[in-house]
Amino acid sequence: MRIRSFSALLASLIALLFVFNSCVKDKCTRRYVYWEPVYRTKDEVRGNIKNNSPREIQRPGKIYIRGNYIFLNEIDRGIHIIDNSNKSAPRNIAFIDIPGNLDIAVKGNILYADLYTDMVAIDITNPLQTIVKKFTENIFPERYYGNGFSQNPSMIIQDWVRRDTIVQTDCGGNGGLFSGLFGGLKEADVFMSNPLAQSGNSTAAGGGSPFGVGGSMARFTIVNNYLYAVSESALNVVSIVNGADPTFSNKVQIGWGIETIYPFNNRLFIGSNTGMFVYDISTPTNPVKLSNFTHATSCDPVIADNNHAFVTLRSGNACRGFTDQLDVLDITNLSSPTLVKTYLMKNPHGLSKDGNTLIICDGADGLKFYNASDVRNLSLQKHITGLNTYDVITFNGWALVVAKDGLYQYDYSSLNNINLISKMSVKN
Amino acid sequence: MKPKYLFLIIFLSGSILSLAQKKETAYKFHSINSLSLLNGENEVSAGLQSVNGFQKKNLFVGLGVGLDYYIYRSVPLFGDVRYEFGKNKNKLFVYADAGINFQWVEDPNVGGPIFIWDGFNTTRDFDNGIYTDAGFGYIVGMKKGGGLVLSFGHTLKSLKSTETYQDWRTQEWLTDIYRYKLNRIAVKVGWRF
Description:
The complex is a heterodimer. Chain A has a domain at about 25-205. Chain A is built from 2 helices and 33 strands. Chain A has helices spanning about 5-20, 40-45, and strands spanning about 25-40, 60-65, 70-75, 80-85, 90-95, 105, 110-115, 120-125, 130-135, 145, 150, 155-170, 190, 220-225, 225-230, 235-240, 245-255, 260-265, 265-270, 275-280, 290-295, 300-305, 310-315, 325-330, 340-345, 350-355, 355-360, 365-370, 380-385, 390-395, 400-405, 405-410, 420-425. In chain A, strands 2-3-4-5 form a 4-stranded antiparallel β-sheet, with no helix packed on it. Chain A has a 4-stranded antiparallel β-sheet with strand order 6-7-8-9, with no helix packed on it. Chain B is mainly beta. Chain B has a single domain (about 5-190), classed as Porin, CATH 2.40.160. Chain B has 1 helix and 9 strands; from the N terminus they run αβββββββββ. Chain B has one helix at about 5-20, and strands at about 30-40, 45-55, 60-70, 75-85, 90-105, 120-125, 130-140, 145-165, 175-190. In chain B, a hairpin with a 2-residue loop joins strand 2 and strand 3 (about 60-70). Residues about 20-25 and about 110-120 of chain B have low confidence and may be disordered. Chains A and B meet through helix 1 and strand 1 of A and strand 1, strand 8 and strand 9 of B.
């Protein structure tokens, strides 16, 4: 065959290559997880806020102790009521269904809980027969939106159902054709675990998702006759002068990435992604900023005593930071807190202080008890490993610890002989 | 063994075997090395192939390896069967290939959804798939069994990738699974010796 003929044949085949191109299709699929909301009417949800059958603890959040009872938040679901009259054998006796619940606070016989955008006041005089006293609406309006998911405003999300699905997806390539995600599902119908799968939407605060941020590291706190609740960017003031009739009082914008709140000596210590804020609440309805202490981007629970604030900073996905440490701040001059010392940690979460004993939940590194009589020289007295700790409440030598796999109770009245009293397992 | 080394070894072995062959035998060794133009729905791309094997009369059976750049770079390793028609030097032939498509993706984030999240722990891994090719061609024979080889056919390669990430709300680890079935028309031009 001559070269000319060969070249003509080659050219013909290349031409055929492009002619027949439309006959071939790439097929690319993606299998992923999404969450489908289960809606109920407001009346149905509100009617179900009462003592229901106990449920297994799955995602423990904020804990509150009142007498012999523990009120334990199940993040985004409600409140477990645990009979702790026998600390060696606590009993999970009831569950109050509160969809969207992230935090709780108690004053006297009234428990306050968030229910997405609203707040509910519940009489817990008899923990075996709790009674709803009032719904205060629209305290947390930002809770409608989260991760690009907008709730149906006339309904409430009671639950989420996890589903796996397979859809066509973009194969890539220079001239790639976008085959479309979701294969029929609209974005707003579901919540994607992979936030970038909800193309184009930026993240927002709060709920409207299967599991909210928050829980243990307090976003609610009560000082005298006022409940202070932080959202992503604001401090809400709710009057509870009449405990059973909470009323919205004021909202103060305080920054971004707000996470925790801790009251001490007529001050509020507010932890955020970027630092700690100190607010004066001498006038309870009008918190006034006194100072702030900035740090690297991190998650930031904070507690305080007369002279010092203790701030844990941790890295991690939701925190978007790279720092894991404990900062001790001198707050004798509240207008200008200063750093005293930094202690490196593994991945610290909640903390508590009882006299000179500082207790830190250091994530997967367990529970740490420090002698804090000299804050410049914290001395580790006891390190309990084997549990992934999240938050701790202490009271007179007794510690109640929320960990990934359960609720632990320790007797630390003698630091040389810390005993595990009991453990309530969490369903994983 | 890394795909690029596999490709090199088979290509060199084929070339050496072919050169060492001096005597006419019932089974004749051939090495067919070609450049391919690949056209699919999402891209026009190129590739290389080396098929080495033995021919008896009009039937050729061999082993091939390639470099395929269509969207995700890969190294197909396949068995090859060809049947030539007629006794002339210049012949039509039909061929069929089947084997494994070894992934050798240059950048795991090329092509598919790009997952970038500050502070997020994500991994994306590719897995091997299958490779098939079938079509017809024409050989322009030269001396000693060599010749120009031209072919036209349909080729399919498949790959799988998994993307593991941590749900920033639930903190649980999830895995998305992507499956790619890439169909192309291929024109190959090469040399047989």
